[in-house]
Amino acid sequence: MNIHPDDPKWTAYVLGELDADERAEIERLVESSEEARTLVEELRVAAGMLRDELASQSGRAPALLAEQRAGVLAASAGASAPAR
After folding, report:
1. Which of 40, 49, 53, 73 is most buried (CB neighbours < 10 A)?
2. pLDDT per residue as tens digits for the range 47-84
3. CB neighbours (10 Å) of residue 30?
């Protein structure tokens, strides 16, 4: 069986974003193909790692350097108000 790992349907499957018919199609492939099972497991691991990392970062905004902050403030002070 020729599995295309770059096909977004695999990630959508792992993230639970497929409709019932699409999910059933992927599940048939997973049942019949070691390659598909391996791909799904790798995607699940990667998604879990991303989820964990993002959760650990929540509430921690990256700090700006003083000159970056000054540049942002200067740019925003010179910006005109949006038209209404």
Report:
1. 40
2. 999 988 888 877 776 677 889 888 988 888 876 555 54
3. 19
d(CA 40, CA 29): 10
Spell out the SS3 assignment of 28-45.
Answer: HHHHHCHHHHHHHHHHHH
Q: pTM of whole model > 0.70?
A: no
Task: List alpha helices for the chain, DSSP H.
Answer: 8-14, 20-32, 34-57, 66-78
Please give the structure tokens belonging to residue 51.
């989820």
CA distance 50 to 27: 23
Using CA atoms, how far apart are residues 27 and 21, in angstroms rounded to an integer?
Answer: 10
